[in-house]
Amino acid sequence: FTSPKIAPSILSADFMNMERDIRVIEQGGASFVHVDVMDGHFVPNLTLGVPFVKQLKRITDLPLDVHLMISNPLYQLPWFLECKPDIVTVHAEALDESAGEFDRAIDMIHEAGSKACIALKPDMDVDVLKPYIGKLDMVLAMSVYPGFSGQKYIEGTEDKVARVVEMARAAGVSPLIEVDGGLGANDPTRAVAASGCDVFVAGSAVFGAEDRAAAIAAMTKVAQE
Ligand code: DX5
Ligand code: ZN
């Protein structure tokens, strides 16, 4: 049994007071800082990029969980890896499997000393991960269509989590499983926790709360029920 990890998404933080907001989640018991990188192409929204991630790394010792929602990730990966993020997530939909890009992305991340994660949009079949499950440190099951915070959890994501757990068990490995979108101290968090989720991303539920530490604590409690 491992205790649930809460990964607040700074997309919902105050960009003009980022250091202050990060201190609050550090003291509030966050396990990772979830960093949503969007390129305005893979997803409709545009958020932050390499210079921002580099500076974040300087102001916090919490592990950076960098979620790349970008097209052609192999091209930009070396730049992000130079920032030494702890975990780097690339979307399956952005990789050309027949060209060996899943392996290439995972290997590039590992060679740089970071942990590798592949994310799946809500419509992507978890079976796409089968050949790679043995070398992934984490799998991210999106519970909303990526692009914006504050969306509603898509029912059924908990079943995908269960299928990833099953796939990993069959392969004799135990990567972390992360869920992202619509989570808080709510039923979706309870449901994905029951299915085997380890890392719970929360944007609006944490940074939208008056007391962010209390929001993290409440969510942790629900995930442990
Ligand atoms: C969505 C992002 C999420 C988002 C989560 O595209 O990947 O990390 O910021 O926000 P909430 O928790 O508000 O759904
Ligand atoms: Zn995210």
UniProtKB/TrEMBL annotation:
Listed binding positions for substrate are S9, H67, G147, F148, S149, G150, D180, G181, G182, G203, S204
User: Which residues of the sequence carry a binding annotation for a divalent metal cation?
Assistant: H34, D36, H67, D180
What superkingdom does the record give?
Bacteria
Q: Where is the active site?
A: D36, D180
Q: What is its EC number?
A: 5.1.3.1
Keyword terms of this UniProt record: Carbohydrate metabolism, Cobalt, Isomerase, Manganese, Metal-binding, Zinc
Please list the GO biological process terms of this entry.
pentose catabolic process; pentose-phosphate shunt
First-tier enzyme category under EC: isomerase
Alphabetical list of Gene3D superfamilies matching this protein: Aldolase class I
Alphabetically, the GO molecular function entries are:
D-ribulose-phosphate 3-epimerase activity; metal ion binding
**What's its job?**
Catalyzes the reversible epimerization of D-ribulose 5-phosphate to D-xylulose 5-phosphate.
Please give the family membership noted in the entry.
Answer: Belongs to the ribulose-phosphate 3-epimerase family.
Q: What is this protein called?
A: Ribulose-phosphate 3-epimerase
